[in-house]
Structures are given as C-alpha cells and as structure tokens.
Amino acid sequence: MFRLRFVFWLIAVAATFIGNQLIEHKFIMILMLFLLSLPIFSILYGFWIRRKLIVKAIPELEFIERGQAACWYIRFTNLSKMQTMALRIMIKANTLHFDQDQIKSTLFVSQNSYQDIRLTAIPTFTGPFTVDGLSVTINDIFGFFRLKSFSANQINFPNVYVLPLENTGDNYHEYLSNQLEAGEFPTGKSQTLLDEIDRLRTMENGDSMKFIHWKLSARMQEWMVKEFDKEDDRTVTILLNLPEVFFKTYNKESNRLLYLRNFMLDHTYSAIKIFLSQEATVRLKTYQPELVVEEAIHMNESDLLRKQLAFVPYRIVVPFSEQLHDERLGNEQNILYIITHELNHSLVADLRALRTKIGSLHLVFAIDQNSTYEDAKEHIEHLSGFNINVEIAHSRKVNSYAE
Q: Which are the contacts of 380, defined by CB distance < 8 A and separation ≥ 6?
C-alpha cells in the first residue's frame, strides 16, 4: 500500500530526471540513482524487519454469557534492536454484526519492547465468536509503503464461546416436568430394559403406576411393583438439527436463521436443566470434534453441557440424517429428545423407523414464521400418529403449554 511520501518521492525522481535532461551533470545522475535505490532498499529491509514482529492474542475469558463483552488482549512484540515499528491495525470484530465499522489505529512499538491493546466486542449470537477481519501492516524504513505483516488467520485468534441462556419461564418447566412424571414422554427405559425385571416389591410413595404388576397385586391383595435392572438410570439423549449459516453471503435471511438458532440453543439448555432436575441422565450428542462433555447426571453438571452447546459451529459438521442413523441410539437410550427447525418427508420416515427402537421420542419443532408451521402441518399429524410427542416452540411468541 502506497503512502503519501511515495508520491513525493515520485515527484523528486521526475524533477531529477528533468533536471538531468536540462543540465547533464554527474552529481544529478548519482542523485537519481540514489533516489531510485531508496524504495528497493526500503521494501527489502521492510520484508526483513517484519519478521521481527510477533503478535499474540489471548482471550480474557473462554466462555461468556450472550450479551456480555468478549475481550482479547493482543500483544505486539518488536524483536528488532534497531528500529521502532509503526504499525497500522485494522480490525473488524466479526461478520456476525451488521454494518459494524472497522477499528483503525496506529501503534508505535519501540525496539526490543512490546505494546498491548485490549479489544472488546459484544457478540449477538450463541456459538464460537472470533475476530476474522484483523490486518496488521508495518511501515517500511523510509515510509514509502505499508507492508502487510499479519492477518487474523496468521495470528491464530482464539475463539470466545458464547453460552446459551436459560428460558426461566415457569410454564415450560411445569409442562416438561409434568410430561416426565405422567410418563407421556417416559421416565422409564427402552423396551429391551423393560423386560429385565430385577425384583418385585411392595409399592412405595413416589412409584409410578405404570410399574405395577397387576396379576401379582391381585393375588397378594396389595400393590406390587416391578423393579428393573438399572431402574434409576433414566437416560435422555438430545440431538440438535440447527440451521446452517453461511457468512460469506450474510444477509437478512442469515440474520433470521441466527436468531432462530439462538432460540433453539436456549430451549435445549432449558430442557437439559429440567431433565437433570428430574434426576435423569442427559446425553448431549452434538457430534463435534471439540467435545467438552458428553454426559451429565447431576444438576451441577449442567454448565458442562451448556459449554458443549457453545462449541456447536455455524456450519454443519455431520448431516442430521447421519446422526439419526447412529446405531447406538436404538440400543442404549430410552428417551430421545430432538429439536429441529425443519420437517420433511425424509425426516418423518427416519423418525418413524427410529421410534420402534427406543422407549420414547419427543420432537421440538422450532419455528419463527407462521408459514413454516402451516407447511409442516401434514408432517406433524403423521408424527402424532406414530406415537411421537411433538412440541411446537415459536421463537417470536410467548409459547403456551397449558394444554
């Protein structure tokens, strides 16, 4: 990138050339050669000196609440013992923000020393958040050019992970808890485990009516219940079918999908808290390479699964159809909780086949437009006919779970 000083240099070269044509003199020729050599020497020296610059970014916190400021400390270290570096820094802290202006600043780093800057940005969406528009240029020794020294990819800017928020509405907590307690979307086990009766005992407070052994109770003249192997191991497996977002074509549609994605992750985290409060084991299958944890049993482990939700990238890693065909889903789990933003014939067929292999399936259909629900009505009716619980969750309305 040319600087104003380079223009003055061109004027000086042109003036020297004209002067040499008017007055042929050895001094003018030497001056012209000297002027011509300046930018060559300057740019070569600049390429060498920029190797003496080290840039390192460290996040203040790896995980933050959505709405909280993400912060990085960026250290610029000048290893040169001869030259003070004049750096021009341009930063755009994430393509996830509409119309965000670039941050432009000039930083002077003395020889054999360092300078720190603090960069903050407020993320709007849950998930990995980083600086993807950083550029660092360094002035050459004579100030003719700005040489690009670093970009965001070269600096290896660490992600800050934005956590989902919990839906604290009492109506949803009551709805899901009642579903669990009533056995409509069971707290029991898969059919393979229901056949493995460990022992029979008299009924106690808190036992579910569905575990009553009717024939034995009639014979014994008191309520007898079946106790199964691993009876207390109530497992819920959670699968997410989140919208995929392409930031190279970021527009209003992408923005809509990102807000819907926020809602789905918040809804999932709220359900996780409810499951754990009901003493169920929760398995979160996000199928990502950077897993924080796969399973939680106690309420104090809910934050571990919350962090795992924040790791989910905006691009699909494993297609949802492949996740549904995971052989382990049919053999190990008793409850499958799926949240999706789309329903189609292929998904309905997959869920129908999967329903026969597990104890229960609860589907959350997250929508943000009434037309989405109208288009999916036929699929919802089919799912209900397969004994699959379907929950309609509208991201832009207050959902009522009174029914």
A: 343, 365, 390, 392
Distance of CA 393 to CAs 171, 342, 369, Å?
13, 12, 11
- By the 10 Å C-beta count (0-12 exposed, 13-18 middle, 19+ buried), 179 is classed as buried
pLDDT in tens, 139-175: 777 767 777 776 656 677 788 999 999 877 768 888 7
- State the span(s) of the chain assigned CATH 3.40.50: 165-187+234-394
DSSP calls for 14-77 = HHHHHHHHHS--HHHHHHHHHHHHHHHHHHHHHHHHGGGEEEEEEES-SEEETTSPEEEEEEEE
Average pLDDT over residues 81-110: 66
Question: For domain 50-162, which CATH number applies: 2.60.40.10, 2.60.120.560, 2.60.120.620, 3.40.50.1820?
Answer: 2.60.40.10
Give the model's pLDDT for residue 190: 37
Q: Are 179 and 185 in contact (CB under 8 A)?
A: yes
pLDDT band at 228 (very low <50, low <70, confident <90, very high): low
What DSSP state is assigned to residue 145? B
Fill in the DSSP letter of residue 264.
H
Q: Where in the chain is the domain with CATH 2.60.40.10?
A: 50-162
Is the CATH number 3.30.1380 carried by domain 165-187+234-394?
no
What is the value of pTM for the model shown? 0.74
Strand pairing report for 235-241 and 281-285: parallel
Closest of 93, 101, 100 to residue 162, by C-alpha: 93
Measured distance CA(271)–CA(238) in Å, rounded: 9
Are the C-beta atoms of residues 401 and 172 closer than 8 Å to each other? yes
How many other CB atoms sit within 10 Å of the CB of residue 313? 16
Over the stretch 270-327, which tens digit does the pLDDT of each residue have? Answer: 999 988 888 788 888 888 776 666 778 778 788 889 999 999 999 888 888 888 887 6
Buried b (16+ CB within 10 A) or exposed e, 117-131: eebebebbbbbbbbb
DSSP conformation letters of 177-232: HHHHHHTSS-SS--HHHHT-EEEEEE--TT--GGGB-HHHHHHHTS-EEEEETTTT
**Looking at residue 194, what is its pLDDT?**
42
